[in-house]
Amino acid sequence: LLLLLHVQTEFDEYLAERMRILADAAALKRLAVAFLHPELPVVTTDPTACARCFFDRYSAPERLSYDEAEEQARILEDSKLLKDCAVMYAHP
Predict the structure, then answer these.
(1) What's the distance, CA 15 to chain centroid?
(2) pTM of the model
(3) Residue 92, SS3 per DSSP
(4) Dihedral sign (CA 44, 50, 52, 58)
(5) pLDDT 10s digit of each residue in the chain, 92 long?
(6) How many CB atoms lie within 10 A of CB 9?
(7) DSSP letters spanning 7-75
């Protein structure tokens, strides 16, 4: 009788662990689907959840003009060349 109780307890622990693993796998699958299909609607049960536009909010970063974007790209290119030169100098 004691052996049967021990076997039953082990089996119950095994089933509980298996259920936890399956629940984790299901949660990971839902997360993967959310990342792979951003066009799907988001389901929420929170009635206070609402969306904000990232670009129109007060703390949104300022948008760059075309000239500013060109200048930024030129500066980044120059800094990349300087980095390459420094690496070549430090590691001939």
Answers:
(1) 31
(2) 0.42
(3) coil
(4) negative
(5) 666 777 788 888 999 999 999 999 999 999 999 888 888 887 777 777 776 666 666 665 678 899 999 999 999 999 999 999 999 988 87
(6) 10
(7) HHHHHHHHHHHHHHHHHHHHHHHHHHHHHH-TTSPPP---TT-----TTTSTTPPPPPPHHHHHHHHHH
